[in-house]
Amino acid sequence: MKKNSGFHTRLIHAGHKKDPLGSVTTPIYQTSTFEFENAQHGADCFAGTSNGYIYTRLGNPTIRSLEDAVANLEGGFGGIAVASGMAAVTTMYMTFLSAGSHIVSSAAVYGASRTVLEKHFSRFGVEATFLDTSKLELIEAAIRPNTKVLYIETPANPTIAITDIAGCADIARKHNLKLVVDNTFCSPYLQRPLELGADVVLHSITKFINGHADVVGGVLVCKTEEDYKFMYNVMTSMGPNMDPHQAYLVSRGLKTLAIRMERAQENALKIAQWLENHPKIAWVLYPGLPSHPQHELAKQQMKGSGALMSFGVKGGFEAGRKLMDNVQLAVLAVSLGGIETLIQHPASMTHAKVAAEAKLAAGITDDMVRYSVGIEDAEDLIADLEQALDKA
Ligand code: LCS
User: Fold this and answer.
1) CA dihedral 126, 87, 15, 262 (to 10 degrees)
2) What is the pLDDT of residues 278-292, one digit of tens each?
3) Catalytic residue from among 10, 207, 223, 260
4) What fold is seen in the domain 7-254?
5) What is the pLDDT of residues 162-171, one digit of tens each?
6) Are the CB atoms for 337 and 217 separated by under 8 Å?
7) Does domain 257-390 have CATH number 3.90.1150.10?
8) Which of 60, 121, 237, 259 has its CA 20 to 30 A from that of 283?
9) Domain boundaries, the chain
């Protein structure tokens, strides 16, 4: 594969090394440890003067193949695959935060990305400020001398709020902060934060990158060798590493990312437009609708509008509950970004552990329903919503 190959070519070929036995796919090296050629080779591997594999927590060819593929697609120096999206988030926190340091984060982030700071990193003296990062002036005002990281999720889970990545990169450069972007909702197909000035991009691989609702995983991509090496050391020392079989499944899912994403977002736009015109729907937030407050920014920094939306049913939570209890095609389940359409209630499910006032301040209202659009027929999904709304 040529270095300047297109995105679709890289999706299929990046990360794969020619196999000595001719396997077209990267084999699953389901081993915990690797045999050295001799004692000197073992010592050289540990000294870093030989590139041989040592032990799967420290590196494995199946996992490396996935790491190289995602790093290539995001345009970074190196990728680090881990056991879950939360392992990616906490590995990043462990890399850049120390006792006494401060992080500024989007208020609307995946619930656990916030609560792990409030409940656990606070025990080690880490301070955190959560705010509406779609307003750049609020970020500037929150920065303190001990601020080390600016962490944004865009579009945000579950409010679909969009943050200006390039604007945040300017602020991060000015104040010497690491800009980290959770790119889970977009995948590198729709948005490449490193190209817009971010230092690190991370994913819950559980979502669009794997895409088939059968694996939990995470990945980080660092722009520079320096950040990559330090983060890799943090990860392998703490041990939240991915398993080779998990990496194999994700690599398989990744190959169809672009065509899955294209179809899902085509469905999503049709559904969002239909919902917006439905008399029982109070509001819809979808980046592809001109009514989205950051529709223009979304058009600039995203290659498409994605497959996630949130909406409110007239009649509030009770009406939303009736809708969720009556859908027959969409699956009532958390997670997102798979080939099947999922529906859930953020306030009582994915963001249940976020304090009530914090939820409201982040825009996670009680009437909010989150809908992750899959690759079924849009007409069938609309018919499903229609019959459920009739009962709401
Ligand atoms: N970042 C984002 C944006 C997420 O949506 C999630 C999980 C994570 C990180 C954590 O990833 P995990 O450890 O679960 O792989 N989001 C979920 C959601 O909205 N419903 O269930 C999980």
Assistant:
1) -100
2) 999 999 999 999 999
3) 207
4) Aspartate Aminotransferase; domain 2 (3.40.640)
5) 999 999 999 9
6) no
7) yes
8) 259
9) 7-254, 257-390
